[in-house]
Amino acid sequence: MSFLKNAVRLKKEFFRAFKLRLMVSKYYARDKEIDYKNINKVLLLRLDDKIGDMIVASGVIRFFAERNVKVYLLTGPLCADLLAHSEYVEKVFIYKRRESLKPLQQECFDVVIDFDDVVTYERCRLVHKLSAKHSVGFNKGDLPIYRKSIEFLDPSRHITERHRSVLRLFASEEHDYRYHLPIHPDAVARVDALVSSLTYKRLIAINPLTGSKDKDLSADQVQQLVYHIKRHHPQDLVVLIGMESKISAMGIEKIVYVEGSTVRTAVEIVRRADVIVSPDTSIVHMCNAFNKPLLAIYNKRKLKDTGLVGYEIWAPNYARARQLVVESEQVSQLSNENLQEEFDRLLSSV
């Protein structure tokens, strides 16, 4: 059975590669240069639906919107929810692989910008079918489907430098690269309901979990940190960020959390918090967006898709963040004493 599955997989890969070569062969040369000063409508592709990636890309959204360029997004449901109510986004389209592209084609975009390094027949077909006047991609030098390829795979530079390279195409002068996160009225109301009746000096938010086990804080690390805060700072309130089912399963005492939490409530908690503790995940970039004091905890794992060092290119990258890089493979192996010491150092600087 495994032999048959492998044969089917190889067959599909062969035909995808063949179809991609056939499509590329139709593009003999790139079109004329893009008129970067005469752009009115731009579509940004963020199809992986990763919250952290979208927050970083939000600096590009802000850049275009502040220049009166209408910004549209094609992304997944999580990122669509994140950027609902954004004054900088004209419209968000949710990507569904087999759904008609006619509504997108009717927008007649001047430029499509694809932030991924993905090189597949499906992705190239999508960019082709969108029928924009021009298309920009990353590391797509051998794919003339993309009218402009930005070659960028630098392990020594932060991920924002990759996005700044888009800005440099459309403006001759340098610009501050600032993230943008909208405030959601429903999230404001829900977090109000959680904390408005409580009396506290500071709101300390802890995000214990990520999308990878090796980057998660353990229940014991979180519980001992909470005890440490309550012992030395009894007037402070500790709020945990995360999915209700996973947070409640950790069994942490002396904390509160939002029931039925969403990405919107996470944004609102970060916006209100005085101090945040989080491993390497989207919460780090939310903290950057609001310039919040942050203890960000990373391991040294390399990224699967590129082999780049995650704690360098995905660092918090702002002055009020304190980055702790652990030597062990698992963040959960960091000692409670070390975690609490680093937290105290951050708190003393606030």
TrEMBL record:
GO biological process: lipopolysaccharide core region biosynthetic process
GO molecular function, one term: ADP-heptose-lipopolysaccharide heptosyltransferase activity
Domain of life: Bacteria
Pfam families in alphabetical order: Glyco_transf_9
Keyword Glycosyltransferase attached: yes
SUPFAM superfamilies associated with the record: UDP-Glycosyltransferase/glycogen phosphorylase (SSF53756)
GO cellular component: cytosol
InterPro entries in UniProt: Glyco_trans_9 (IPR002201), LPS_LOS_Heptosyltrfase (IPR051199)
Keyword Iron-sulfur: no
Keywords, alphabetical: Glycosyltransferase, Transferase
Protein name: Heptosyltransferase
Protein source organism: Salinicola socius
